[in-house]
Amino acid sequence: MSCAVTLSSPIQNAELPEINRRSAGYHPSIWGDHFLSYASNINREEDHDKEEEHQKLKNELQKMLMADEVDKPLEKLKLIDAIQRLGVSYHFEKEIEQVLHLAYNDCDIGVNDGNLYTISLEFRLLRQNGYKMSCEAFNKFKDSEGKLKESLINDVQGMLSLYEATHLRVHGEDILDEALAFTTTHLETMATSCLNSSLAAQISHALKQPIHKGLPRLEARQYMPIYQEDPSHNEAVLTFAKLDFNMLQRVHQKELSEIAK
Fold first, then answer.
1. Residue 9, in any domain of the structure
2. How far apart, in whole angstroms, are the C-alpha atoms of residue 223 and residue 242?
3. Taking residues 223-245, what's their average pLDDT?
4. How far is 170 from 135, CA to CA, in rounded Å?
5. Four-residue CA torsion sign, 86, 120, 197, 61
6. Is position 30 within any domain?
7. Domain Terpene synthase N-terminal, which positions (predicted)?
8. Which residue, 74, 117, 187, 220, could crosslink 158 as a Cys pair with Cβ 3.0–4.6 Å?
């Protein structure tokens, strides 16, 4: 008959030395449990209703973009401009690409229309979406001495559109270099004298932060109230943009709540 004998090790019997660790002294989070409250504020029924309205408006805007309106090419460009500036263009990438591709192939919106706003808008939208647009269309706005016509300052909307277009210029485009200096000088005056509050707000912001150099999401939030004041704004686009912004914000809030947990 054998018996098991357990031998105790001197190392096991010895008391481990007490280790004193320095405290980092971190302060409590200034947010506390603030982000946890987002989870309790979720209303499933309300979210479902917003999602349905969001999808309905999305379908409506897709139809607007794809509508066969040969006689209204400018309206399509203005719609795309609003969609992009309101930060919801990621929903309509294919539709926007189709419209701009057709506009580029036709390439006569600006050529046949002497409107400064139209030419500048078309140039900016096409170039910022990767199309190689020539700046020669702007030569029609030069006087006999080869300078930009002073009469252009009477077209405030056109001047603002031209100013935004100049920020997509490349090296060697002298006409756009000249246009940037020309529009900047006159827009600074217009920002304080323009009677249209919506247009004045756009000018002031553009002089500080041109569209091309802004962060899309921040620009969208800033542009919403300005676009809403514009008498010619598209209500479907505006409502969709607000819904989309709020829904995305809710997603971020839920993520913060999960991280806080």
1. no
2. 11
3. 94
4. 10
5. negative
6. no
7. 30-207
8. 117
Domain count, the chain: 1
For the whole model, what pTM was predicted? 0.80
**DSSP H helices in 33-115:** 37-40, 44-66, 73-85, 93-106, 109-112
Distance (Å, whole) CA 23 – CA 169 = 56
Residue-wise pLDDT for 22-50, tens only, equals 766 777 777 677 777 766 666 677 788 89
Q: What is the CATH number for 217?
A: 1.50.10.130
**Beta-ladder partners of 180:** none
Q: Is 4 left (phi over 0), alpha (psi -120 to 50) or beta?
A: beta
From residue 69, alpha-carbon distances to 110, 171, 253 in Å are 17, 36, 41
User: Is residue 8 situated within a structural domain?
Assistant: no
CA 258 to CA 224: how far, in whole Å?
30
| Residue 252 CB neighbour total at 10 angstroms | 10
109, pLDDT greater than 70: no
* Residue recorded with tokens 């006999």: 144
Closest by Cα among 160, 167, 170, 77 to 132: 170
Which candidate, 125, 85, 128, 129, places its Cα nearest to that of 245? 85
Sign for the pseudo-dihedral over CA of 161, 164, 165, 166: positive
The whole domain housing 243 covers 51-260
